[in-house]
Specification:
Layout (H helix, E strand, L loop, with lengths): L1 E4 L8 E9 L4 E10 L4 E10 L6 E10 L2 E11 L10 H4 L15 H16 L24 E8 L5 E4 L20 H16 L14 E8 L6 E8 L7 H18 L6 E8 L7 E8 L4 E6 L5 E6 L9 H15 L6 E7 L5 H6 L3 E8 L2 H13 L5 E5 L2 H6 L1 H5 L5 E4 L8 H9 L5 E5 L2 H13 L3 E8 L9 E7 L4
Parallel strand pairs: 1-3, 4-6, 10-11, 15-16, 15-18, 16-17, 18-19
Antiparallel strand pairs: 2-3, 2-5, 3-4, 5-6, 7-8, 7-9, 9-10, 11-12, 13-14, 19-21, 20-21
Helix pairs in contact: 2-11, 3-4
């Protein structure tokens, strides 16, 4: 069906559209054939709707239309998808502007896995990968309460009240008063509600990104799913609205401690961090530990009965789904071949805090990791020491530039190179230098199917053949999917 329009869609217009797919950000995708203006010039508009599912017929409230792309929100669900179910969370069923954290919660988990498999197969088709060669997505051990971290923001809700929670879809400045979040354990929300109530009772102003005013910024919950240790970090601006900012921070964190105790989930650590941002000066974070050691620990179980213990600082990166990470790292180990034949030298490129490299350490004589962020490298080396791993070295630097230097010659011909690049994928320069060191096996761990498909085109051009592909679900209720690809090198 083709619509006749006097002009291009504008903000506030209503359009009917059928959702045909979902993108990697979880937005429902549809298309409209239209004829626009007096000349009735034919056009096809792409429509993006957060919360839309394949098979939905929606009335869409247009937010913008630029370069043939209409972005809108659901005004009415005219005909629901046969796969659509009632979401578990009240912030999706009862809010005028629903939470933006769970794009796929209205799909059953098996349907989510099938949708993610489709995202991977379509993205890899550009690299001429046969969809039949891609096995089903491995599920997360937990589809709910799997996250070990959640950052709740302070702000105002739509009625102007102080709120501590997540952002609604399309409401950049608003915050939900969080009543539930099924991605984390129940105590996380109980604690956030207690801190919100304490801040409201003290009439403390939330930070306003629009003009930099206000004091309260975020409350971050972190939890060791295997250790039961818990940490909260209260982050505020540096300029306090009270003469006793330390006492005020202590009062808020005491509310968190008391609520956690009452919920049967006592906090191991509580930290206050001041975010100091002065024009013309480098932004700094000033932290004070107000309860406990200021860290928490997590344990990852590996094949062969191995286990690693990690010390996690308040702002250190750690896999948000640790039980899912065990599934992912098991697949990485299988892809490397290390479980069958231990190696002499293994590269962990884009290593972050070294979790993949440390997981490979029991099966290799030498691990060399490279990561751009110095603080992540510091964490990787600290975690190596904590686990008495002396044969792992983590180096700070850009992967391409580092391999261009002396390290490239040193690691040439490594048994395995594992790549875990950022969402944007591999930089062409880095790809060329990885090719130059000629690893005997390449394992690519991707968090973005689109970038993976693009990079596999180039890797195949260089002679690397995808020998095995395994998608893994690390973030249920979202469209995010990881993919592990084993590549064999070009023939000598």
């Amino acid at each position: 069906m083709t619509l006749d329009l006097e002009r291009n869609p504008r903000r506030g217009d209503l359009l009917e559209v059928e959702i045909e797919g979902v993108d990697t950000d979880g937005c429902g995708l549809g298309s409209l054939d239209v004829r626009v203006g007096p000349q009735r010039a034919p056009r096809r508009l792409r429509v993006e709707v957060r919360g839309g599912l394949p098979g939905d017929r929606l009335r869409v409230d247009v937010g913008s239309c630029k370069q043939g792309v209409v972005v809108g929100r659901i005004d009415a669900l005219l005909t629901p998808s046969p796969q659509r179910i009632t979401p578990r969370c009240v912030h999706l069923t009862e809010e005028v502007h629903p939470c933006g954290g769970c794009a796929l919660q209205a799909l059953g988990y098996e349907d989510q896995l099938a949708l993610k498999h489709g995202l991977v197969t379509r993205a890899l088709s550009r690299a001429q990968i046969d969809p039949a060669s891609i096995p089903p997505v491995l599920p997360s051990p937990r589809p709910w309460a799997y996250r070990n971290k959640m950052e709740f923001s302070f702000g105002r809700d739509g009625a102007g009240r102080l709120a501590l929670g997540l952002h609604p879809v399309g409401r950049r400045w608003d915050i939900l008063r969080q009543r539930a979040c099924h991605l984390v354990s129940d105590p996380a929300v109980i604690v956030s509600q207690a801190v919100q109530d304490a801040a409201e009772a003290l009439a403390l102003p939330p930070f306003r990104p629009q003009d930099g005013s206000g004091w309260l910024r975020t409350l971050t919950w972190r939890e060791g799913l295997r250790t039961g240790e818990r940490l909260v970090e209260l982050t505020t601006s540096h300029e306090a609205p009270t003469p006793d900012p330390l006492g005020t921070a202590q009062a808020l964190l005491q509310a968190a401690l008391d609520a956690a105790d009452a919920a049967g989930a006592p906090l191991t650590s509580a930290v206050w961090t001041q975010h100091r941002a002065v024009r013309g000066e480098r932004t700094t974070l000033i932290s004070q530990v107000l309860h406990g050691p200021g860290v928490y620990h997590e344990v990852l179980h590996l094949p062969g009965g191995h286990a690693l213990r990690f010390e996690v600082h308040p702002r250190a990166f750690f896999q948000p789904n640790p039980l899912g990470a065990e599934v992912l790292y098991r697949e990485v180990l299988q892809a490397t071949g290390l479980l069958e034949a231990p190696a002499s030298r293994v590269l962990d490129l884009y290593c972050g805090t070294g979790t993949i490299g440390l997981c490979m350490a029991p099966f290799a004589a030498e691990i060399v990791g490279v990561e751009l962020q110095p603080d992540a490298v510091e964490g990787a080396n600290r975690n190596a020491r904590a686990n008495a791993i002396t044969h792992a070295e983590f180096i700070a630097g850009d992967v391409g530039a580092t391999l261009e230097g002396p390290l490239g010659a040193r690691v040439r011909g490594a048994d395995v190179a594992v790549l875990d690049p950022p969402r944007s994928g591999l930089h062409p320069k880095a790809l060329q230098h990885i090719h130059a060191i000629q690893p005997r096996r390449l394992v690519y761990v991707s968090c973005n199917p689109e970038a993976l498909g693009r990079d596999l085109v180039e890797l195949r051009r260089l002679g690397y053949h995808p020998a095995a592909i395994q998608p893994v679900d690390m973030f249920p209720q979202t469209a995010h999917v990881e993919t592990v690809v084993t590549l064999t090198p070009p023939a000598p």
